[in-house]
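Note to self: user wants both folds in one dump. Writing first protein now.
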Amino acid sequence: MPNPTIYKHPKEIIHNPDNTTTEIERSLRQNGDLSVIVKIKDANRHTLVVYHIVYDQTGQLVHGPHEEPGSRDINYQEALPEYDYYL
């Protein structure tokens, strides 16, 4: 059974030194899990890659991080940035 979103946190936008932006979208699910979508975009706001991560109520990683299928720009080869604040 799916766990629908019960609350969406405000989108967080981080401007990176390499002229890309990181958009972090957090959604609280009905079962208490936190679903996190991380989008890396270039200076023109073109999406370079999208990652999905899920944490449980205690902050433990449940799922991911993994790339959303078909989301990666073929010219973008960077890995998921190591941030401590995806939660």
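First done. Writing the second protein, which came from a different request thread.
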Amino acid sequence: MMLIFGLMLLLLQTAACLDQLCTFDEPYSIKQCYAALGHKLSLQMMLNPSYTDLYLYKTLNDGSRLKVFSIEKNKKYDYESIIFEYLKNVPLIINTHESIRNRSEFFFDNMTLTINNVTKPDSGRYTSFVIEIDMAMESDLQVIVEAPIGSVEVSIICSSNQTTVFCSSEGDLIIYSWTLNGKILQEGFNFLSSSIDLDKGTDGNISCSVKNNISHAQKTITLKPCPVSLVFVLVWCLQLMVLLGLLGPFHIYMRHTSGKKQEDQKVRMRRLREGHEHTAEDS
């Protein structure tokens, strides 16, 4: 039971870490904001108690603005700000665009709009536009939605002269890095997968670290020298058998040739002696 509770707590902590909070800071400024696909994105407006109206726009591809969210005070009431109106239970006119209506909520205590289950179309430039009693201010956020890092997979392929280690994971804009026994081997940028080539005798703990702008993960495996390939052994044995098969007939041929040469040599020597003997008799 404790193990199950611990796993559930770990999953909840992991999910919470992927929830992002981005703030509209200085007026007439723009900054980047990264959000995790499928998780929460909280957009905090500028904290200013003198708002009379608040609007949140999203810039579309054609340059036009879509009103995503707005809070306007009811004009028949005359209070200094929407925060004070909320605290005094004065009705406010709140509008939410249909694209986020069923998956968003607004918190007045910190002036934050939270969008649940963020999708890729939620990416874009958002503008917070507030109207005060005597002026208007706006601030921009460039929201970028990325798929978080998934499980990391590491595999090994052995060849005749090297070991290749492959690493892959789900997610957007992935950056890979490798360590062997705590020492950084290589860092690189790749959208799909990454691999590294090592000497075939390399061993130790090799780690593949994967990260993007919103999450990270790592997997470590124990690397052992590659065993001798069975295919390589079979090929070597086949080559040896072929070589022995050739050496046998060659050895027999050489013995036969050598014996014949010795026999011919004996015949020549015998004929030479007989020739000398006939010459001596004639003389």
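Dump finished. Worth passing along: Confidence is low (pLDDT under 50) at residues 1-16.
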